[in-house]
Amino acid sequence: MKTDKSRRKFLRVLPLGIFAGMAGVLAAAAFRFLRPVAAAQREAVWLDVAPVSELKGEKPLLRTVLAERSAGWSVTLEEQQVFILPAQKHQALSSMCPHEGCNVVWRDETNNFFCPCHDSAFAPDGERVSGPARRGLDPLPSREKDGILQVQYQTFVNNIKERIPRA
Ligand code: FES
Asked: Quick one: average pLDDT of 53-61?
């Protein structure tokens, strides 16, 4: 009789336990999803670009890095383009135009960066020269480690003057 009573009690409590567990999991997921700032505060990752010995010359060099991209629940790896400026202590610049995000190109003829989407132009150091872009190309942190140039890839909010990192 006593076993019957405790079994009934257990069966009454069981759905509550399951419900509490599911609610906890959903709350944790919602917190992560609805707090993009928390994702932005994750520790920045250093990505290998190339051996420093290969990054020479006066002109910007276009390279790709494999960077994580978060979209909602999923995290994918995507190739992203960066420009390295060997003549400026290997400063790294995002190739993403700060107007609407097209990739800029380097033009030897005019000695500047150019965005083919809406004709923004940028100086060799990335400063804005003309066009609808409201700021210069976005600089990315770079460092040399064991002879390899590394960058921290980051995207920024487009079409504003301020440089605000995206989550
Ligand atoms: S996206 Fe580059 S000028 Fe518009």
From this structure: 97
Q: Which long-range contacts (CB under 8 A, 24 or more apart) does 127-133 make?
A: 128/98, 131/99, 132/99, 133/97, 133/98, 133/99
Residue type, 70: S
Predicted TM-score (pTM) above 0.85: no
85 lines ligand 1 (CB under 6 A): no
115 C-beta closer than 6 A to ligand 1:
yes
The residue-averaged pLDDT of 138-152 equals 98
**SS3 (DSSP) at 13:** helix
Q: Kindly give the residue spans of alpha helices, DSSP state H, lying in the chain.
A: 2-34, 36-40
SS3 102: coil
Does the pLDDT at position 37 exceed 60? no
130 lines ligand 1 (CB under 6 A): no
User: If pLDDT is split at 50, 70 and 90, which confidence band does 35 have?
Assistant: low
